[in-house]
Amino acid sequence: MTPAVAKRFRSGRACLDFAHTAETPDWREPELVYDRPSLERWLSHILGLAAVRTEPGDVAEAHRLRAAILRLARARTSEQPFDPQDVDVLNAFAAAAPPIPRLTANGALAPLAATAVAGLSAIARDAIDLFAGPLGHRIRVCASPDCAYMFVDASRPGTRRWCSMQRCGNLAKVHTHRDNQAVKDLAR
Ligand SMILES: [Zn+2]
């Protein structure tokens, strides 16, 4: 996985990682879910499933859920009310049975295969858990202009600005340092 793709899956939440597979005006990277194999690949990756089985129509359904989650998450990043239609879509997807975990005889978790319907249910349930939970108003957009992905700020003061301090935070520091240096150079 290239760094440009990997950074789409660092939000810390399955529902936001799933939202980040979209192509939007907010970030520069392209659509990741454009056919059944790509849906199977990324849904497996995000949910840690061994395999996902899709049927015709699943890609459109995935896009419908994703668009609702994106708008709901965006509403939270700007403290706007939810669109009730998006809430209905989310609840409808969550109503399907999620992937069922299975224990092996030696006490491990069996490799889990699921349908896309079950996978999308797990994504929708994660979104409900996030929005209604203690971090539901801590969804932020990374302050780095060349990132713009969302993350959940679990820091105690709730003042985190970047999705990743190592990546976007350090880049911002480098830029600030350069800007300061440029100002000093001009002043000379
Ligand atoms: Zn970032």
TrEMBL record:
Organism for this UniProt entry: Nakamurella panacisegetis
InterPro entries assigned to the protein according to its UniProt record, in alphabetical order: ABATE, ABATE_dom_sf, Znf_CGNR
Occurrences of domain Zinc finger CGNR (ranges): 138-179
Superkingdom field: Bacteria
One Pfam family matching this protein: zf-CGNR
Protein name: Conserved protein containing a Zn-ribbon-like motif, possibly RNA-binding
